[in-house]
Automatic annotation (TrEMBL):
Involved in targeting and insertion of nascent membrane proteins into the cytoplasmic membrane. Binds to the hydrophobic signal sequence of the ribosome-nascent chain (RNC) as it emerges from the ribosomes. The SRP-RNC complex is then targeted to the cytoplasmic membrane where it interacts with the SRP receptor FtsY. One of its GO terms (molecular function) is GTP binding. Its main location: cytoplasm. Its EC number is 3.6.5.4. GTP binds at residues 107-114, 188-192, 246-249. Keywords: Cytoplasm, GTP-binding, Hydrolase, Nucleotide-binding, Ribonucleoprotein, RNA-binding, Signal recognition particle. Residues 267-280 form the SRP54-type proteins GTP-binding domain. It is an enzyme of class 3 (hydrolase). It comes from Tepidanaerobacter syntrophicus. This is Signal recognition particle protein. It is found in: Cytoplasm. Composed of three domains: the N-terminal N domain, which is responsible for interactions with the ribosome, the central G domain, which binds GTP, and the C-terminal M domain, which binds the RNA and the signal sequence of the RNC.
Amino acid sequence: MAFESLTQKLNDIFKKLRGKGKLSEADVKQAMKEVRLALLEADVNFKVVKELVARITERAIGQEVMESLTPAQQVIKIVNEELVALMGPAQSKIDFSKDITVIMMVGLQGSGKTTTAGKLGKFFAKDGKKPLLVAADVYRPAAIKQLQVIGDKVGLPVFSMGQQNPVDISKAAIEYARKNNHNVVIIDTAGRLHIDDELMDELINIKNAVNPSEILLVVDSMTGQDAVNVAEEFNKKLSLTGLILTKLDGDTRGGAALSAKAVTGCPIKFVGMGEKLDDLESFYPERMASRILG
Ligand code: GDP
């Protein structure tokens, strides 16, 4: 289960605090040392941990907590609030302000990008939208086929021009969408095993050609800090509008979920919770913090 070890450790720390009744400053500081270690072990970014623990400590050794009748409870409340603030603010919505909402899906191979494109299409269709999926990952014929299979499963059309130039495909897809009353266009762009200039240039070219409402980076939460580094690189080049963390149903330690927003400044918009095409949820920082605190 995701966050299992982190949740267990935090609960142990809080249990010790509860057992003490009134807390001294030293008690809080000791507990914070342990929280810091637990977060680092969960692969949360070092700088993020440092700043987070400093904020929690400052609030926790404040008068209100120390003089409260339930100081441990107050400390837990502060940790919860700071986790929410770290992953938030509040869930960020998709920008549907244009007639046709163009969404570029970007990400490394294996992150879950193609599956998530289908999940997102299904998610929007349920909401009354008319999505069109676009096969612009042209280097692997299998990727086009995969999107078609997913399109069939979710009952959405897939626009494909085989292995032609992805910029031309994307432009033609938007034209097609306009003529056929699709109001959401989800472009599945190429994935690679590693970030390289060629990939980035291609994505920049598509971005410039289609002026998307959203550029969503799909990252695998199982890869922890690597996911966050990938997000930073993509964001530098593309100015992402949001992140989608996949595989949160697995035994991810928590690092990506807790660090991604703080490190990149990009909000997490959705989370992938399984292999099935229904397993996509809007991201709510409060819900994630509750899961982490158990
Ligand atoms: P792409 O190469 O980035 O397009 O990745 P795919 O969409 O092909 O996904 C790679 C693998 O991850 C597939 O086996 C998917 O079923 C799986 N996958 C994608 N999202 C999730 C998720 O949220 N949870 C789980 N458990 N598996 C996922």
